[in-house]
Amino acid sequence: MTATDPASTPGRSLPLDPSLAPPGTRQFRDAGGIPADRWHADQNGETLVPTHCCFCGVQCGMYLRVDRGGKVFGVEPRNHDINRMRLCPKGINAYQQVNHPDRLTAPLMRRNRDEEFREVSWDEALDHTVAEIRRIQGEYGNDAFGLLGGASLFSEKTYLVGKFARIALKSRHVDYNGRLCMVSAAGANKLAFGIDRAGNPFSDILLTDCLLIAGSNVGECFPVMTQYLWGARDRGATLIVVDPRETAVARTADVHVALKPGTDSAFFNAVLNVVIAEGLTDEAYLAAHTTGWDEVRKTVADYPPSRSAEICGVPEEQIVQVARMFAGAGKAMAWHARGVEHHSQGVENCLTIINLCVATGNIGKPGAGYGTITGQGNGQGGREHGQKSDLLPGGRSITNPEHRRQICEIWGIDEAELPLAGTSMMEMVWQMQRKEIRGLVGICNNPFVSLPNYATVKDGYDTLEFHAQFDFFLSETAANAHVVFPVTVWAEDEGVMANAEARVVKHNKAQEPPAGVRTDTWVMCELARRLGAGDKFDFPDSRAVFEELRIASAGTVNDYYGITYERLEETGGIAWPCPSTEHPGTPRLFENGRTYHPDGKIHLQVVEWHPPMDPYSEEYPLSLTTGRTVAHFLSGNQTRRLGALVEQTPRPWVEVHPSHGFRNGDPVRVVTRRGSEVFPALVTEAIRPDTVFVPYHWPVPTAANALTIDALDPRSKIPEYKVCAARIELAERVDEVPAPPTAPGHQAYPETQVSRTDPLPPTSPQGRGTAERS
To answer: 20 to 30 A Cα–Cα from 691, which one of 21, 36, 158, 222?
Structure first.
């Protein structure tokens, strides 16, 4: 296209031929947006609204471009100190959700699942939902109805989820999809430090001499965070990556430990064994600031490099190399994510990394510390204020009598009215199967794609007598519900999120929602009013909720009291705890050598390695592991509808080592004890020969989580997504990728669906192996 081309002239439309227009351009134009390939970067009357990305835990700053009619039509990177003008492919395309043709704009309802959805009024949908809640609870008790929230909600809404469940529903059964994300790290942090958050800000990575990244595909899952890794490298830091796959970041590491999935704790115990044997521990720090060191020392003595090398499938000398590199650095840091946490011993895996950092004195200093990388946008904030089954606002324990008294006083209820702890998200599904939970409201989650062992999940949800779901697109889970409430996207409301550093940032409203759409806050408050609890939910907007949240968190470990909307807009973000409006926040923990345990000590924990829960056999000799890809996010309900992202990565694939004899693009059946699916092969040397990888953003029949096991960590209750026993075999054809569900009268627009039929995998993001498309 040239500058004189009619299609580039203001006021002229782009060609309607899909072969000439970029995927999705026509529909977004018709919905009120301006095509992404318009030559001019500005227009008269344009407004830039500062906000943050809706996706991962980095929480990049951005500007949403709003036209004179008040509609979001584009995005510009923002020079926020988190991302410094950088956005990843998801962030660049996020704005396209706002005026997307697939948006739900009216409540959907049906009396049973044999009927088709029909659009109904808000009164009919709300009244029917309230009637079903009352019927089920009247027949089976309050705990027969449950609520599942989400960690992509603003913190104000997560606060309401917990309060709504316990006051309006009067049920103990509330949990959230962050249970599938960071709860193993949370459990380890609480055990060791008495506080659940990363110990250091991202900026400390720039100061370290040695950086260890374990179980995190940073380049694809948290792309903008990569700038901190490269900044550290530029000043000479060494990089250690622990991952079964040679990811883009692992390819550039000084040491890449390609360990066998499910062996992390054996590896880190062995690293600590070498550190102790070579006299590289910080004994003065350990004596002054820890408990449990003698027990840990005795335990890791049973994990010499020779033993753990055999368990982990890595060279013995590599374990020694990592120990010397990490412990010998002046300042060292360790960050980890789901690859370490998604295990039946996820909490223990995290604890072994904490033990290594503490034993070498790398805690609470610039460039020295420990962090966990949040998966969801509000993965950190989403569990801090009450939607987790065992927690109340401010991170209070629901089993602690004093904590219960405090929150009941704030909420104005008798303590006898406050339910006890509920169960985890996966356990709630099992309770649905057993008819212990007969009704459910789901908000901001898509378990039909995100939970393991799909057959069990589908059976549990099908057994429900009533199911309502909040969403702005019709997800696979919502498509199975009885009532669907159309709610706002992130750009149509304001609120706060806490990123992976525990930095609280503010999202600003850029556009009014479409007619017929309401905020999650409004819907919860309206349901509460109709259930007779309206006096406890008199919140006109997010600001009103946040003011109560500040009070409810005051004096707790997760103290937000000193954080206000005005301060967040002025500063760009404040790390909690922040106990007063004069307090600057706490970006780095433990600088004074004290933790949040009453004794101020770090409580080191003994960890023994045990094998994964799904045993290997002659029939299932391989490890299946799962993860994300750069173009998509979690269950894909948002990103599988955005043209550029679908075009970049239209379908899942299976990564296999060349030793298996497959050619790139061959249809390969992946079989586990839960079932089988067929994916195109991406043949690459960047994965262990005994391991296969499938990304999990798609639904059945191409859902990785139809194959994964629903075994749980006994403490965190996180599923063991990252390892299950499998085999692979040549098939006849790959399974077809389904189009996303749409509301009655709508069709998935073709420009973003054509590429789904491509039978080949995307080119290898690792850049190695035989992934050329031919």
So the answer is: 222
Residue with tokens 């995927």: 23
Q: What is the pLDDT of residue 760?
A: 80
User: What would the two tokens of residue 648 be?
Assistant: 């970049």
Beta strands in 32-162 (DSSP E): 47-52, 61-66, 72-77, 108-109, 118-119, 145-149
Residue reference for tokens 């072969």? 19
Name residue, tokens 């290898």. 764
**DSSP structural state of residue 168:** I
pLDDT, tens digit, for every residue of 359-404? 999 999 999 999 999 889 899 999 999 999 999 999 999 999 999 9
C-alpha to C-alpha distances, 368 to 212, 241, 291, 729, nearest whole angstrom? 11, 17, 20, 46
Taking only the tens place, the pLDDT of each residue in 724-772 is: 999 999 999 999 999 999 998 887 766 667 777 778 887 655 444 444 4
> What pLDDT is attached to residue 240?
98
| Separation of alpha carbons 5 and 35, rounded Å | 15
Arithmetic mean of pLDDT, 8-18: 35
Q: What is the 3-state secondary structure (H, E, C) of 273-331?
A: HHHHHCCCCCHHHHHHHEECHHHHHHHHCCCCHHHHHHHHCCCHHHHHHHHHHHHCCCC
pTM above 0.90, yes or no: yes
Structure token pair of residue 313: 């499938």
Does residue 12 have a pLDDT over 90?
A: no
Handedness of CA 739, 743, 744, 749 (dihedral sign): negative
Rg of the chain, C-alpha, whole Å: 25
Distance, in Å, from the CA atom of 440 to the CA atom of 174, rounded to the nearest integer, reads 10
Alpha carbon distance 566, 109 (integer Å): 40
Sorting pLDDT into bands at 50, 70 and 90, what band is 40? very low
Write down the H helix ranges in 365-422: 401-411
Condensed to tens digits (0 to 9), the pLDDT of residues 251-287 reads 999 999 999 999 999 999 999 999 999 999 999 999 9
Closest CA to 282 of 362, 371, 200, 353: 362
What is d(CA 489, CA 541) in angstroms, rounded to the nearest whole number?
15
Q: How far is CA 64 from CA 71, 152, 519, 594, 644, in A?
A: 10, 19, 19, 42, 18
Across the range 452-477, mean pLDDT stands at: 98
Q: What is the mean pLDDT of residues 465-474?
A: 98
Of 368, 394, 381, nearest to 495 (Cα)?
381
| Interval 410-415 mean pLDDT | 97
CA–CA separation, 441 and 627 (whole Å)? 27
Going by DSSP bridges, is the β-strand pair 483-486/108-109 parallel, antiparallel, or unpaired? antiparallel
Residues 6+ apart with CB under 8 A from 657: 683, 684, 685, 687, 688, 689, 691
Pairwise CA distance, residues 83 & 434, whole Å:
47
Q: ∠ CA(645), CA(649), CA(651), 5° rounding?
A: 125
Mention every residue, 6+ apart, whose C-beta is less than 8 A from residue 509.
49, 491, 492, 493, 494
Do 424 and 431 touch, CB atoms closer than 8 A? Answer: no
Model confidence at 573, pLDDT cuts 50, 70, 90, reads very high
Q: Which residues pair with 62 in a beta bridge?
A: 51, 77
Nearest to 122 by CA among 607, 661, 523, 544: 523
- pLDDT by residue (tens digit) across 624-665? 999 999 999 999 999 999 988 998 899 999 999 999 999 999
User: Regarding beta strands 483-486 and 495-498, do their DSSP bridges make them parallel or antiparallel, or are they unpaired?
Assistant: unpaired
What is the chain's percent helix, strand, coil content, to nearest 5?
Answer: 35, 15, 50
In this prediction, residue 14 carries a pLDDT of 34
